[in-house]
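hey can u run this one w/ heme C bound, need the structure tokens asap thx
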Amino acid sequence: MSKQDSQFFNIFSLVLGILILIAILLFALARVVGKNTQSAHVLTDPKYLAEVESNLTTGRVAVAGRDNSALAIVPAAGAVVAELAIPTDGPGVYEQVCGACHLNGIGGAPKSSDRAAWAPRIAQGKDTLYKHAIEGYNGKQGVMPAKGGRVDLSDDLVKAAVDYMVAKAQ
Ligand code: HEC
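ok here u go:
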């Protein structure tokens, strides 16, 4: 290596070293600045927090013995909520609930117009029919869900629906 070459090499290495040092310093500076501004800002930004909150609600589960009131489903203001009207009499319950299965015999349900299917059931006595309709019943034909799946109905309403259905099948 000539003298000139080695001189150039030395200066070149020095410049390279200085550049690398500057890069490291800039990186460190960026970290320090970012720590005090960006992340702190994100953690207190109400929009960001609301976003996180709304993402969390999808995975929430009610826990027994804790305050679960935050899980209550609150319809948005002004939203039209299609409430499932609670029927008020036997025929109403039949139309809205029981008929789903009993009108056409879905899932093994005895058709409400099928006298032959109902005769042996009616022969069990009304009390048994009431009990099976209210508490649910696992028979040979299929599964009769408690209150036809509408557990919000009163026992009396379900009894009225049984009366209505039995009257149709007699
Ligand atoms: C998801 C379908 C379904 C709905 C909804 C439903 N049932 Fe049933 N129900 C059945 C099936 C299936 C059976 C027959 C069970 C068997 O005997 O295997 C049955 C049987 C019955 C019986 C005869 C029970 C017995 O002891 O033989 C009565 C009474 C009855 N349902 C009343 C009702 C009433 C009242 C409603 C509405 C509140 C209703 N069901 C809604 C499926 C349904």
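Residues 93, 97-98, 100-102, 106-110, 121, 124, 128-129, 132-133, 137, 139-145, 147-149, 158, 161-162, 165 surround heme C (CB under 6 Å). anyway lmk if its weird
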